[in-house]
Write a structure and sequence with these properties.
The structure holds 3 protein chains of 3 kinds.
Chain A lengths: L4 H10 L6 H18 L23 E2 L9 H5 L5 E2 L2 E5 L5
Antiparallel strand pairs in A: 2-3
Chain B lengths: L2 E12 L36 E2 H13 L3 E2 L2 E2 L1 E5 L9 E5 L5 E10 L2 E14 L3 E4 L8 E5 L6 E7 L6 H17 L12 E11 L9 E6 L2 H20 L8 E5 L4 E4 L12 E2 L6 E2 L2 H8 L6 H12 L3 H8 L2 H13 L4 H10 L1 H5 L5 H13 L4 H14 L3 H7 L8 H14 L1 H8 L6 H11 L6 H12 L6
Parallel strand pairs in B: 13-14
Antiparallel strand pairs in B: 1-11, 1-12, 3-7, 4-17, 5-6, 5-16, 7-8, 8-11, 9-10, 12-13, 14-15
Chain C lengths: L10 H9 L5 H19 L2 E4 L1 H16 L11 E5 L26 H8 L3 E6 L33 H8 L6 E5 L5 H7 L2 E4 L19 E6 L2 H11 L17 H5 L7 E5 L10 H16 L3 E5 L7 H16 L18 H12 L2 H14 L5 H24 L2 E5 L15 H5 L6 H6 L3 E8 L5 E7 L5 H14 L11
Parallel strand pairs in C: 2-3, 2-4, 7-8, 7-9
Antiparallel strand pairs in C: 1-3, 4-6, 5-6, 5-10, 9-11, 10-11
Classes of the chains: A alpha+beta, B alpha+beta, C alpha/beta.
Chain lengths: 96, 476, 491
């Protein structure tokens, strides 16, 4: 299935993955081949088939509305690549 | 050419649960940054969501109160996008299969009642807050506070049935009142527990197709929603009349300047790639649960207004004010239960003392006594006001204070007889003039009696007594 | 038994000896740490070894035993965990640069259960990055080598765990399986691996690859060891909404049950085609004979949609993965790219530099399969095909109690042999994938060696929550077909 370079770049933007030109080209080819292989699924008539959107046949379980504080903010913040006090710090969005 | 506006409103209401929708962190407002967080709501590797039953309850009750059809089976879906206030880089929401469909809210307008359709209600989690470092626009960094992540939200989408900013305001207010009645949401726009985005378009009157719509955001009060809608409708009409075309875009309301502004940021194609969240199974709401919840729906604002007006013979406008807060309406009815002599007066009093009543500082008996004493003439209107103020100050019962302060009005005609006789005797010239036609002198006599009784006489009764003794003023 | 070196004992044997105080946990742990020190540079089964922590745990275990207070069935026995299970205070990397320094603020359910059973944690085992792979060649922390032949792959993604078990660098391990990642490396390394029914083992703290397919499970040298490990890690967990609230049966008791009358189904689609190595076919036939000799009945079954399973899987798994891995954006933990101008660039560069090529490829496929205009044709279609595959198994289990198939189409291939073409690599999972799509349990048990002496495994599949049947059949095969369980090279 032919995928264009534009499509590859569009998908890479959606996925926040910057790609080098070489990578983009390689992925274009590989994805095309893979999706070609997967087109075999079109041979199956699934018009009356219900999709398996959940692996378990049950209703979702519930939690009661009771607060249990985690109680260790530091453990949550200590992995932050950049922080300011108790905030996570990130670069601003650059406006065009 | 005449135009008409087509408006649809999207409300996000924060549910007033104790804990978050998918984890047990507190939802309490005002915590220090990242204090109310845990591995689940901060999207740590390996964590999983578990649904808060109360959030479902609140949503189902809202659906019932707005006549929606509660879906037995609904599905949580992931809405995928990247932003620092969204720890998992997806928001758990509902997409194709929401928890409720097809309801309505009735609003009261000058012309009568209008039914505004509700397309759907679904559940989702809130995102965190991004604070921009420093006050100036040149700040290099943003700071993320994830306290608000995963607070439960209900999204309520109206049909594009609204036609004017006033209708929009009425719909929002009525919807808010319903949510507050149900105790599922604080309904506070300024604090962000009740948010509104609008979709606005215009079309030539009579045209069936909708015009291109703009999405409005950043309106943080009911009034601002109305103003933004007003502005945007005018703007779109102007664009079209100038020969241009309305662009489909998101516009932010600038309350300071009173205009809507197109968002500067280049709008990326928003492909959210919704798919059913595999970490959550379908939400099943059984009929038995729905019926149990139906029983917990209180009398809602519209019904209450109608019932109060009909039952107590008070104007719909007054009933509307009383019904704006369930506690106020309940107070009114409790007060009338104590003394039903003049519901209209009771209603007025409740409206006048609304804040104190809602703060729980007055009892229904207090107002009932105040109204009763006024109706029987035991106290004057002025004294009534003063007494309630004293109750608020001292906490003592109103009749105790009435007697303590000696504010009982003299209404007993026999008691007044003596004072009236004294006054009449002391002003023979005026009596003569009065009897000769100067009817206006009645107020002079009333004033004298009031002076003589040190303000305690009931002016109405004084008038009656004076008339009896002196006649109506004029040759008999 | 007496001349068997300590590290070669089975898990049950080691546990018994510690319990009966024939050996201390400290001695046992020391022996294994020494072995890891010698072998890990060659095999690279472990990303992180925890010598101090393990010895401290061992000391505590010995002290508890002296007080007559053992914690559980694994008391004092050193084991390892795939580096996908969170352990508070211990770096958990998922084989990725993007989590190279991540210190989890909490323990996974599996971690808690293994520790509650009294086990000693030797370290975190190597894996394909984010569990995406069939060869453990995509880890940021280097390739793991098959202890049977160091020029070959151990399989993946739980290759580190399988290799560690096979080279007796632990008495047992816990891996994860999304499309075969426990069973296939177990097969290639000559050990036993079990993927439980979906929902049997809690996924809480098990870093997600494909949420509707992932399951944690044991890798051990004997069937009985796997039964014991599964009974430790299985069980309802309210923190995992997909966890199933069913009692955990006595899996150990199932191992020695007779297979007389057991209906063994052979799905014809798994034996057709020329991808199946003749040595593998022969070995699986030996396994069948072992079963029928002991009274099992062979039945022909068909799983007609088998050939579509790979396509369905490689749309569903990457789609879920693309969403699960979106949280790795450099904001709250892990690697962050330096010098980016602005938020979007920071995220894009972080992920470009933090993820390896296979992960990126799958994120791209997954994002594409979910994207506007393609959802119905790809993801939506695959989910429907999944229903058909589940239906195939449901029908088959009407005729058979257990299905017998090869685990992998070939024995271990050489390092670098299949890295050029993704599809070729993906085809190694062709027999294991359908089981994950259906959510049923699967087990791989060694059943022979190739001509060049490489291990071959037979796969057993049963209906949902019928793991006992797997252990019964596997036990029968194990008794009849002895295969060395410790890689001869490593001794």
């Amino acid at each position: 299935m032919a995928i264009t370079r534009e499509e590859v770049l569009h998908v890479s933007r959606l996925a926040r993955l910057s790609l080098s030109d070489a990578e983009a080209e390689r992925l274009r080819e590989q994805l095309g081949n893979l999706l070609d292989y997967m087109k075999q699924l079109d041979r199956l008539d699934t018009r009356d088939v219900v999709p398996t959107s959940h692996a378990v046949e049950m209703g979702t379980p519930f939690r009661e509305d009771v607060v249990h504080p985690f109680g260790d903010r530091e453990a949550l913040l200590k992995n932050a690549p950049d922080r300011e006090g108790d905030f996570f710090r990130v670069p601003r969005i650059i406006e065009d | 050419m005449e135009f008409e506006a087509v408006i649809g409103l999207e409300v996000h209401a924060q549910l007033a649960t104790e804990s978050k929708i998918f984890c047990a962190c507190s939802t309490k407002f005002g915590a220090s940054p990242n204090e109310n967080t845990c591995p689940v709501c901060t999207g740590m590797p390996g964590v999983l969501p578990v649904l808060n039953r109360k959030a479902v309850e609140y949503t189902v009750r809202t659906a019932l109160a707005t006549s929606c059809k509660v879906q037995r089976r609904s599905v949580f879906a992931r809405k995928n996008y990247f932003y620092p206030d969204l720890p998992k880089a997806y928001q758990i929401s509902q997409y194709e299969l929401p928890v409720a469909l097809g309801g309505h809210v009735d609003i009261e307008l000058d012309g009568g009642t209008k039914r505004i359709g509700i397309t759907r209600i679904h559940m989702e989690e809130d995102a965190g807050k991004l604070v921009h470092e420093g006050e100036f626009a040149g700040a290099q960094a943003s700071l993320a506070d994830l306290n608000r992540c995963s607070v439960p939200l209900m999204e309520i989408v109206s049909e594009p049935d609204l036609r004017t900013p006033e209708e929009g305001g009425a719909y929002l207010r009525r919807l808010r009142d319903i949510l507050v009645y149900l105790e599922v949401c604080d309904g506070n726009m300024e604090e962000g527990s009740f948010r509104c985005d609008a979709n606005v378009s215009v079309r030539p009157k009579g045209q069936k197709e909708f015009g291109t719509k703009a999405e409005l955001k950043n309106m943080n009060s009911f009034r601002n929603v109305e103003k933004a809608l007003e502005y945007e409708i005018r703007r779109q009409i102007e664009v079209i009349e100038d020969g241009g075309r309305v662009v489909q875009e998101t516009r932010l309301w600038d309350a300071g300047a009173g205009v809507t502004v197109a968002m500067r940021r280049k709008e990326e194609a928003h492909d959210y790639r919704y798919f059913p969240d595999p970490d959550l199974l379908p939400l099943i709401v059984e009929d038995a649960w729905i019926e149990d919840l139906r029983k917990t729906i209180p009398e809602l604002p519209a019904e209450k207004v109608a019932r109060l007006a009909a039952r107590y013979g008070i104007p719909k406008y007054d009933a509307g004010i009383l019904a704006s807060a369930r506690a106020l309406a309940d107070f009114f009815e409790a007060s009338v239960a104590h003394y039903a002599g003049s519901p209209k007066t009771t209603a007025n009093e409740c409206v006048h003392w609304k804040d104190a009543i809602l703060a729980g500082r007055l009892s229904p008996e207090t107002i009932a006594h105040a109204v009763e004493d006024r109706e029987t003439g035991a106290i004057s209107a002025t004294a009534s006001k003063k007494l309630v103020e004293l109750v608020l100050e001292t906490g003592k019962p109103i009749r105790t204070l009435r007697d303590e302060k000696g504010l009982t009005q003299l209404s007993d005609t026999s008691a007044l007889d003596a004072i009236v006789d004294k006054v009449v005797a002391a002003s023979p010239k005026e009596v003569e003039s009065y009897r000769n036609g100067k009817a206006g002198l009645l107020s002079f006599f009333v004033g004298q009696v009031m002076k003589e009784s040190r303000g305690k006489a009931n002016p109405k009764v004084v008038q009656e007594v004076l008339r009896k003794k002196l006649g109506d003023g004029g040759p008999s | 038994m007496e001349n068997v070196p300590v590290h070669q004992w089975s898990l049950l044997e080691a546990a018994r000896r510690v319990r009966e105080k024939e050996i201390s946990s400290r001695e046992l742990t020391k022996a294994l740490l020494a072995r890891i020190e010698v072998l890990n540079p060659k095999i690279n089964a472990y990303i992180t070894v925890l010598p101090e922590r393990a010895m401290a745990q061992a000391a505590a275990c010995d002290e508890e035993l002296a007080r007559g207070a053992p914690r559980g069935p694994l008391h004092g026995v050193p084991v390892g965990l795939k580096d996908i299970f969170c352990i508070r205070g211990v770096r958990t990397t998922c084989g990725s640069r993007i989590l190279h320094n991540f210190d989890p603020p909490y323990d996974a359910a599996v971690t808690t259960k293994v520790l509650a059973a009294g086990a000693v944690l030797l370290g975190k085992q190597n894996m394909d990055e984010f569990a995406m792979g069939s060869s453990t060649e995509t880890s940021h922390f280097g390739v793991t080598r098959n202890p049977w032949d160091l020029s070959r792959i151990p399989g993946g993604s739980s290759g580190g765990t399988a290799a560690a078990v096979s080279a007796a660098m632990c008495f047992a391990g816990v891996g994860t399986d999304t499309g075969g990642s426990i069973r296939q490396p177990a097969s290639l390394c000559g050990v036993v691996g079990v993927k439980p029914t979906y929902g049997r083992v809690s996924r809480y703290g098990m870093v997600a690859f494909a949420s509707s397919l992932d399951q944690g499970g044991p890798i051990t040298r004997t069937v009985a060891d796997s039964a014991r490990m599964l009974s430790v890690i299985a069980g309802y967990d309210r923190r995992d909404s997909t966890s199933v609230d069913l009692p955990v049966p006595d899996y150990l008791a199932a191992v020695d049950k007779p297979v007389k009358g057991l209906r063994v189904g052979l799905p014809r689609e798994y034996f057709e085609g020329d991808g199946l190595d003749p040595a593998v076919r022969a070995a699986v036939e030996k396994a069948l004979k072992a079963l029928t000799d002991q009274g099992a009945t062979p039945v022909e079954v068909s799983l007609p949609h088998t050939s579509f399973a790979l396509s369905a899987y490689y749309l569903i798994a990457p789609a879920e993965a693309s969403s699960n891995l979106a949280r790795y954006d450099g904001v709250r933990y892990g690697y962050r790219s330096e010098g980016a101008s602005g938020l979007i660039e920071m995220m894009s560069k972080t992920r470009a530099e933090g993820f390896g090529a296979e992960v990126k490829r799958r994120i791209m496929i997954g994002t594409y399969a979910l994207s506007a205009g393609y959802y119905e044709a790809f993801y939506g279609k695959a989910q429907k095909v999944r229903t058909l595959i589940r239906g195939d198994f449901a029908k088959a289990f009407g005729k058979a109690d257990v299905l017998l198939t090869p685990t992998a189409p070939t024995p271990a291939f050489r390092i670098g042999e299949k890295t050029d073409d993704p599809l070729t690599m993906y085809l190694s999972d062709i027999f294991t994938i359908p089981c994950n799509l259906a959510g049923i349990p699967g087990l791989s048990v060694p059943c022979g060696l190739s001509a060049s002496g490489l291990p071959i495994g037979a796969q057993l599949l049963s209906d949902h929550f019928r793991e006992e049947t797997l252990f019964t059949a596997a036990g029968a095969i194990e008794r009849a077909v002895p295969v060395p369980r410790v890689a001869p090279l490593t001794g």
